[in-house]
Amino acid sequence: MAKKQFQSRDQKHGSVAKKLAITKQKPVSKSKLKHQLKSTKHQIEQLNSNLKEFEDVRSLLTDVKKPEKKGNSLDYKDLKQDLMKDEERKSKNTSVENDISKQLELLTGFEL
């Protein structure tokens, strides 16, 4: 039985030794570290620019206003306002037409 305990201890320690061997890393050269640092900085800059673009698009989308829904097109108040506007335009147009016709009469009178 003593042998079995001894063997199980070796097996346990052997597996720990293998784990330690796997986790140990070799030293990295300075030039390789610099290269990794530069590539990491570049990746961070790209992510920041992408984040800025994303925020810009998000703000533009939130700024877009939804069109207001109009109520019933046969609303009494709207129809009355439209009628008033039409009457004002009509009176302005008639006054402009009268002025133009008077000016035309004067111009034709000068030619004779």
Structure described in brief:
This protein has 112 residues and is mainly α. Helix content is 82%, strand content 0%.
Description:
The protein has 112 residues and is mainly alpha-helical. Among the domains are: 30-62; 74-112. Helices cover 82% and strands 0% of the residues. The chain has three helices and no strands. It is elongated and about 115 Å long. It starts with a helix and ends with a helix. The model has no long low-confidence stretch (mean pLDDT 79).
List keywords for this structure.
single chain, 112 residues
Tell me the total number of β-strands: 0
Q: Segments where pLDDT lies below 50 for 5+ residues?
A: none
Q: How much of the residues is beta strand, in percent?
A: under 5%
Terminal-residue CA separation: 143 Å
Radius of gyration: 44 Å
Helix and strand composition category: mainly alpha
The amount of helix comes to: over 70%
The largest β sheet comes out as: none
Output the helix-strand order: HHH
Shape: elongated
Q: Give the count of helical stretches.
A: 3
Round the mean pLDDT to the nearest integer and report it: 79
Oligomer: single chain
Coiled coil: 30-64
Keywords: Coiled coil
